[in-house]
Amino acid sequence: MHMICCPRCGEAVPTASSSPSLRCSAEVYGLLGKTLARSRQERFYVVSIDARNRVLRRHLVAVGSLAAVVVHPREVFRPLILDGAAAAIVLHSHPSGDPRPSVEDQEITERLAKAGLLLGIVVLDHLVVGKEGYFSFRDAGKIE
Predict the structure, then answer these.
(1) CA–CA separation, 18 vs 60, rounded Å?
(2) Which candidate, 73, 142, 59, 72, places its Cα nearest to that of 102?
(3) Which of the chain's termini has less CB crowding within 10 Å, N or C?
(4) What is the pLDDT at residue 121?
(5) Do 74 and 110 meet the contact criterion of CB atoms below 8 Å apart?
(6) Which of the residues in the chain have pLDDT under 50?
């Protein structure tokens, strides 16, 4: 099994999704990152998380074009509420391959984090995934 190190905690993390809980961005990337990196359209996923950081379900929320995807908090939080999630992690692809977040990515991250606070569902992280790797808003200190 191929191992990578989490940039946040420094621990070696298996890339397989058999982990009982998600502890860092590298594990989240291992869960869906490679699938998203191959996408030819922007795809936006939400992962519902229980109180022990275990994955409840993965939901494809929206599929966009080559350069954009339209996402609204109601579409993101609907499956989380139905799953009884305590927290969420959102991910989306950049088909260009460059995982650097756009201004729109930063804005939707802020909107989702605020909505999550109101609903009692914490947004733990937002990963932007491209062929060149991923960007984690949590690791960059842009989401608390």
Answers:
(1) 20
(2) 142
(3) N
(4) 98
(5) no
(6) 1-2, 14-19
Answer for the pair 121, 80: CB distance below 8 angstroms, yes or no: yes
The amino acid at 128: V
pTM higher than 0.90 for the full model? no
Nearest Cα neighbor of 144 from 113, 119, 107 is 113
- Bridge partners (DSSP) of residue 122 are 87
- The predicted pLDDT at position 8 comes to 57
d(CA 100, CA 87): 24
DSSP calls for the chain: --EEE-TTT--EEESSTT-SS--SHHHHIIIIIHHHHT-SS-EEEEEEE-TTS-EEEEEEEEE--SS-----HHHHHHHHHHHT-SEEEEEEE-TTS--PPPHHHHHHHHHHHHHHHHHT-EEEEEEEEETTEEEETTTTTS--
**HEC letters along 36-75:** HHCCCCCEEEEEEECCCCCEEEEEEEEECCCCCCCCCHHH
Which tokens belong to 132? 């060149």
Residue reference for tokens 């909107």 = 111
- Check the CA dihedral 109-41-78-29 and report its sign: negative
